[in-house]
């Protein structure tokens, strides 16, 4: 017998905390809670229903409030912010890093935002305004201004003495120092490993690396994540259009982008937002989901209307009613496969106008092969089931038509939606299902009307 898999320590600690909360031991719960990392506290808060969440939030040490808020999804963060008074909010967010503060300040009431900005010194205020001038999902929105810069003419010995003076002021996740000229334009990076392995009298220019390209502040978060993945980066400098250093992006911010993108793709297929609170109030969740249920209902009525046009054929040949779902289902699965592949290609930046034609050709070829194989399988089953060769041929032809239509739609629909400014992950599934249902029913019932009646 194999040994049981080791439990996740984080999961175990959170489960233990749940048990203590259920026992009502608030002091012990508070000690256990504040022994967790701030990200773990945020995870625990998101896993609790609203009443318990409010109770646990009051147990969090006030000095950790700001950091915990940065790890929460938007809905949960907004709920907890509404529970805090102005003084608590200002104290909680005032010490945050500029990039985290820029994310949170947009969720604060206007009056509180003004108070937070007034409480900052001029340098931090300027940095915050600069961060807020860029979209949240851009490189400028992701960057932090906590950079350590050196100039190329400095010797490494001087740099080492400079770092010793910084001590605790050295930013987290520092794997390199950013090299700039006297005007602040980005030149390259000096890796700490090179700093330690070169001679102290060597200059920064002799030890620095020129291969690390700066990221434009206007790049999208998706483009930033791709750059980090392709170049195995831990940090990356961010510059403006003129090459002036603005800040840097660290790998922990990129991991958040990747997670949010994955959540968006997964939840978007069901018409849900990646920021939605799992324990949100019933009416709020119902209102948000009602829109896509309504859209789906309209598409379902469209498919039903197509079926209704062939009511006479269905009444005369009962087998048509039995076999209709097979045609629609096969098209839906085939289309979803192509749709998912295409959306992923767009998300990774691998799909462009230049290779779209090749992708379309490839997906149509795959659909053609699969349609022949499975049309034959379904035709044989229909023949054995209903003892009717004509029905077998009709359903085989309908499946072939629907699989080809599904591949064509799945390949081109995301591109069309993106060009129209519509999120393919959110709307693609609903539209694809409509197309495969309508084409499937129209092909099957239309061919049956022509050749069976």
TrEMBL record:
GO molecular function: magnesium ion transmembrane transporter activity; metal ion binding
InterPro entries named in the record: CBS_dom (IPR000644), CBS_dom_sf (IPR046342), Mg_transptr_MgtE_intracell_dom (IPR006668), MgtE_N_sf (IPR038076), MgtE_transporter (IPR006669), SLC41_membr_dom (IPR006667), SLC41_membr_dom_sf (IPR036739)
Annotated CDD domains: CBS_pair_Mg_transporter
Subcellular location field: Cell membrane; Membrane
Pfam families: CBS (PF00571), MgtE (PF01769), MgtE_N (PF03448)
Membrane topology label: Multi-pass membrane protein
Main location: membrane
Keyword terms of this UniProt record: CBS domain, Cell membrane, Magnesium, Membrane, Metal-binding, Transmembrane, Transmembrane helix, Transport
Segments passing through the bilayer: 290-308, 314-343, 364-385, 391-417, 429-452
CBS domain boundaries: 143-206, 208-264
Entry's Gene Ontology cellular component terms: plasma membrane
Self-association state and partner proteins as the record states: Homodimer.
PANTHER family, alphabetized: MAGNESIUM TRANSPORTER MGTE (PTHR43773)
Annotated family: Belongs to the SLC41A transporter family.
Role this protein plays: Acts as a magnesium transporter.
Protein name: Magnesium transporter MgtE
């Amino acid at each position: 017998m194999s040994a049981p898999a080791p439990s996740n320590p984080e999961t175990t600690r959170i489960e233990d905390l749940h048990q203590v909360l259920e026992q009502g031991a608030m002091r012990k719960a508070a000690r256990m809670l504040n022994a967790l990392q701030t990200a773990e506290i945020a995870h625990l808060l998101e896993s609790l229903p609203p009443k318990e969440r409010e109770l646990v939030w009051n147990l969090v040490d006030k000095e950790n409030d700001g950091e915990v808020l940065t790890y929460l999804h938007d809905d949960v963060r907004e709920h907890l912010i509404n529970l805090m008074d102005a003084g608590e909010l200002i104290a909680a967010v005032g010490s945050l890093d500029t990039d985290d503060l820029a994310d949170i300040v947009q969720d604060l009431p206007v009056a509180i935002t003004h108070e937070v900005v007034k409480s900052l010194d001029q340098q931090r205020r300027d940095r915050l305004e600069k961060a807020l001038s860029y979209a949240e999902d851009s490189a400028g929105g992701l960057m932090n201004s906590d950079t350590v810069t050196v100039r190329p003419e400095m010797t490494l010995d001087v740099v080492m003495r400079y770092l010793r003076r910084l001590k605790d002021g050295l930013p987290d996740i520092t794997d390199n120092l950013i090299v700039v000229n006297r005007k602040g334009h980005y030149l390259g990076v000096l890796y700490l490993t090179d700093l330690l392995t070169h001679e102290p009298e060597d200059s920064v220019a002799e030890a620095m690396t020129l291969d690390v390209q700066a990221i434009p502040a206007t790049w999208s978060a998706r483009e930033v994540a791709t750059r980090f993945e392709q170049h195995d980066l831990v940090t990356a400098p961010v510059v403006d259009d003129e090459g002036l250093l603005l800040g840097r992006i660290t790998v922990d911010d990129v991991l958040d982008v990747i997670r949010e993108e994955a959540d968006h793709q997964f939840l978007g297929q069901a018409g849900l937002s990646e920021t939605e609170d799992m324990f949100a109030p019933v009416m709020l969740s119902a209102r948000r989901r009602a829109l896509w249920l309504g859209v789906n209902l309209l598409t379902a009525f469209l498919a039903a209307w197509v079926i209704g046009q062939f009511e006479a054929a269905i009444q005369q040949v009962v087998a048509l009613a039995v076999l209709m779902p097979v045609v629609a289902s096969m098209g839906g699965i085939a289309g979803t496969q192509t749709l998912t592949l295409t959306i992923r290609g767009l998300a990774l930046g691998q799909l462009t106008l230049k290779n779209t034609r090749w992708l379309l050709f490839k997906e149509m070829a795959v659909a053609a092969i699969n349609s022949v194989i499975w049309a034959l399988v379904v035709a044989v089953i229909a023949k054995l089931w209903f003892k009717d060769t004509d029905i077998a041929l009709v359903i085989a032809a309908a499946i072939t038509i629907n699989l080809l239509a599904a591949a064509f739609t799945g390949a081109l629909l995301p591109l069309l939606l993106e060009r129209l400014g519509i999120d393919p992950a959110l709307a693609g599934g609903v539209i694809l299902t409509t197309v495969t249902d309508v084409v499937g029913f129209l092909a099957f019932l239309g061919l049956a009307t022509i050749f069976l009646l």
